[in-house]
Here is the input.
Amino acid sequence: MGKILSKERVIEYSIEFKIKVVELTNQLDVETAKIAEILNLHPVMIYRWRQEYREGKFTPQPTRRISMTKDSPKPLPSKKNVDELQKLKKENLLLKKENDFLKKWRGYLKDQKQKGSDS
Here is the structure.
């Protein structure tokens, strides 16, 4: 979150926090003022962070933390999983086509009903 720097309650927020707030405002379809109110921030601060983010002024600060664990390599998917994935993709494509057809059919029926009621 933030840390208080002096007696006048000047709060400094971490770059990671600022980036998360900016990404949150970009992802949600909510007014920035509402997000600022929820986070107890001034809306102008968020607008400024968004501008700085667009200008590329937010760069992650280097940390002194060192990972003590090795990243294990991800296992390759088995032939069975690959085949199942391909089967599911084909089925998904077929279902999308059927869904599109049904939407068109519903529109056609709606048009026919309107034409029948006009006469």
Summary: The longest helix spans residues 79-118.
